[in-house]
Design brief:
Helix 3 runs parallel beside helix 7 and helix 5 packs across helix 7. A hairpin with a 2-residue loop joins strand 1 and strand 2. This protein is mainly α. Strands 1-2 form a two-stranded antiparallel sheet. It contains eleven helices and two strands, in the order H-H-E-E-H-H-H-H-H-H-H-H-H.
Length: 258
């Protein structure tokens, strides 16, 4: 296995995807980015009169303040994973963009990392737009968003690597639905985005806490308090990202060259 990689090669691949996105940004941009904002507004305003205030690490939060960090994390999850899974699968199997790029003086790792970083970029775009809107509406502090940028980047890299791994594993585009309904939807609903995980039964709470969206959501709520073992949550995200990226790199390489 060769890990030959060049910064210029990675940038070339990333820039190619960015130029394509630039030409179709209105179609590709609005529907996915509007999704977490719609959840924030609908559930936030709709449930706040029913829920009232929540106690989170000793602080009293409105329901909108509670779910706003979760919606920023959901924006990263959806955009990074879907671009890594669907976008990369289409470029691999239908458009055959990977095969075309490999005829240029680019290594497989250049193409892989360029694709990975582009999917992560899509996650960051969604996170920043959702984050800025929540800040402007007064549901999350500016300082919280600025300090959380490295965390959002880590989450984007992790979820995009999971998407690329999916693209490498599935044989048909319909099979992408399997990890979506077995992993992405459970994370979206159970990882503390809409309610404290402490409300769940012990077994379900333990499983949910191990899923990668849980530490991202918990750490996004840092202005309101952190868990005692928060450094371990960051370490857990780093380990998952490295493992997912390596498995995705190996699986897509095998798919292309076997």
């Amino acid at each position: 296995m060769k890990w030959s990689i060049s910064p210029w090669g990675v940038y070339s691949v990333w820039r190619r995807h960015a130029k394509v996105y630039q030409n179709t940004w209105l179609v590709n941009f609005l529907p996915p980015v509007s999704e977490p904002l719609l959840y924030l507004i609908a559930f936030g305003y709709g449930l706040t009169p029913i829920v009232g205030k929540l106690n989170y690490h000793g602080q009293s939060l409105t329901y909108l303040q509670f779910i706003a960090p979760g919606m920023i994390a959901v924006g990263v999850l959806f955009q990074a994973f879907f671009e890594g899974a669907y976008g990369s699968f289409i470029r691999l199997n239908f458009q055959r963009t990977w095969q075309a790029l490999l005829t240029a003086p680019l290594s497989f790792s250049d193409v892989f990392v360029g694709d990975w970083l582009w999917a992560a970029t899509r996650g960051m775009i969604a996170a920043l737009i959702t984050g800025v809107v929540t800040v402007l509406l007064g549901f999350y502090p500016w300082s919280g968003l600025l300090v959380a940028l490295p965390l959002l980047m880590l989450g984007a890299l992790l979820f995009s690597a999971m998407g690329l791994l999916t693209a490498g594993l599935v044989q048909t585009i319909d099979q992408v639905n399997v990890p979506i309904f077995m992993l992405i939807v459970p994370m979206f609903t159970l990882c503390g985005t809409y309610f404290p995980r402490e409300n769940l039964p012990w077994v379900l709470r333990t499983i949910a806490s191990l899923l990668p969206l849980s530490p991202v959501v918990d750490l996004m709520r840092w202005p309101y308090g952190l868990a005692l073992l928060w450094p371990l949550q960051i370490l857990w995200l780093l380990v998952l990202m490295v493992v997912a990226a390596f498995l995705a790199w190996r699986q897509i390489r095998r798919k292309l060259f076997s």
